[in-house]
Amino acid sequence: MFKLKFKSRSVHKIVKGNFKMAKIAVVGAGPSGSSTGYHLAKNGHHVTLIDKESFPRDKACGDGITAKAVRALTKMGIDYEYLKKLASEYYLWNSSIISYYSQEYHQEYSDWSICIPRYIFDNIIYEKAIDAGCIHHQQSVTNISQFRSNFKHEFDYIVDARGIFAGECNVIGIREYWTLPIELFPHYYHYNIQVYLEQELGSQELGSNGYLWIFPVGLNDKLLKINVGLGLSLKDYERRGTNLIRFFDEFVVRHHVAGKFLDNVVTRTRKKVYPLATTKWNNKIYENNIFKVGDAANLTDPVTGEGIHNAIASGFYLAQAINMSEDIESVKINYQKFYQKYFQKKLRTRLLQEKMLSLPVLRNFLLYKIGKLSK
Ligand SMILES: Cc1cc2nc3c(=O)[nH]c(=O)nc-3n(C[C@H](O)[C@H](O)[C@H](O)COP(=O)(O)OP(=O)(O)OC[C@H]3O[C@@H](n4cnc5c(N)ncnc54)[C@H](O)[C@@H]3O)c2cc1C
After folding, report:
1. Cα–Cα distance, 250 to 351 (Å, whole number)
2. String of b and e for 246-281 (b: at least 16 CB within 10 Å)?
3. Sign of the dihedral through C-alpha 63, 65, 66, 68
């Protein structure tokens, strides 16, 4: 039974002037939930933001926040200056090294991007949602359909933003933070994020690509903090039947770049294993009158593993759909239109690219495109 207690409001919609304010429960206060909550609360809706954790809370991630994710954040009044002021740790980057089966592709971007540990980044977005008027409840909602039927008189809309716990896991990731003396971090890697798609991490049989990432996430006078992680397709991981922590430890030692960094590492934090919900051909953005955003809707890019941008953007578009609609059926129609226009085509293209990456003739062209599309 749910422990939540909400003040009962007798009317279904509270009308102020001509504007109908809805009562909305957003379950999950990560980037997608906080973005949804922020944009709804800013428009005068009553938003209850429910999360099983209290903030700040950690989330296993590469911590890479692309320029387009920062652009999506500007709609919440968050820009680079704001992030740099509030984040106690960050690292700016404007180029990437993507290596595919030992062939390296170096890409420079005209815009800057940023890495911020999610413990810090998610809290910045969450605080914005609270400042905009969202009410926080700390509670775990394991069965959201049950939640909906229990609280159908309390809320006009229910939004599922519980991330992978609501989405469908198809990749498994592990990350660890390392610190090393800045002078021992070669200049070649400065302002870079690195992604290594290695033969050993994929499976030709299953058509899957695994990858190692090395993302700098913090810097002081002496030390650089890097986020080092591995992503493996779930099918491949299950086929291997290996212990991911042991596999990661052994893999980074023999990796030609990670292994060299490891020689100079001063500290290593506890590893965190976490599933990813990369996109599927037929993503569902609502089900049983419950709307989904971010990872709950499987909006993560299957090639790069980037999900933060789509999490923030889907929150914005769902809020727009609610703001412009009279009832739940019109919200569905409008949200679906936004989804088709801003997400579906790009995500489906990525699914095709993921499959085509295994064809050597197309690989160079695709890696160039992937670098460009991640801007
Ligand atoms: C290993 C790894 C590396 C990644 N690297 C990157 C990267 O570098 N760049 C990038 O853009 N993306 C990356 N991603 C993807 C990115 O982390 C997600 O796309 C993003 O976090 C999705 O945001 P979200 O708000 O939908 O979900 P989340 O960030 O997962 O937030 C979900 C929230 O729901 C809450 N919740 C969960 N279950 C319940 C429940 N039962 N009741 C109440 N609350 C609940 C959680 O506590 C959490 O606060 C990575 C993912 C993984 C796993």
Report:
1. 30
2. ebbeebbeebebbeebbeebeeeeebbebbbbbbbe
3. positive
Least confident stretch, 30-39, 118-127, 324-333, 345-354: 345-354
User: ∠ CA(213), CA(217), CA(220), 5° rounding?
Assistant: 140
Distance from C-alpha of 23 to C-alpha of 308, rounded to nearest angstrom? 26
Confirm if 294 and 310 have CB atoms less than 8 A apart.
Answer: yes
Q: Which amino acid is at 13?
A: K
- Per-residue model confidence as pLDDT tens digits over 345-356: 999 999 888 777
The two structure tokens encoding residue 339: 């989804």
User: Ligand 1: which residue has its CA nearest to atom 3?
Assistant: 61
Q: Does the CB atom of residue 311 touch ligand 1 within 6 A?
A: yes
Please state, in angstroms and rounded to a whole number, the distance separating the CA atoms of residues 271 and 189. Answer: 23
The full set of domain ranges for the chain reads: 14-92+116-168+277-358, 171-276
In order of 39, 78, 156, 161, 328, the CA distances from 299 in angstroms are 19, 22, 24, 11, 22
Distance, CA 295 to ligand 1 centroid (Å)?
A: 6
In tens, the pLDDT along 69-80 reads: 999 999 999 999
Range 171-276 has CATH code 3.90.1310.10: no
Side-chain half-sphere CA neighbours of 256 within 13 A: 11
Which of 59, 175, 176, 215 to mutate for ligand 1's pocket (most ligand atoms within 8 Å of CB)?
A: 59
Cα dist. 116→90, 142, 205 in Å?
Answer: 5, 29, 36
CATH class name, domain 14-92+116-168+277-358:
alpha beta
Distance CA 173, CA 63 (A): 13
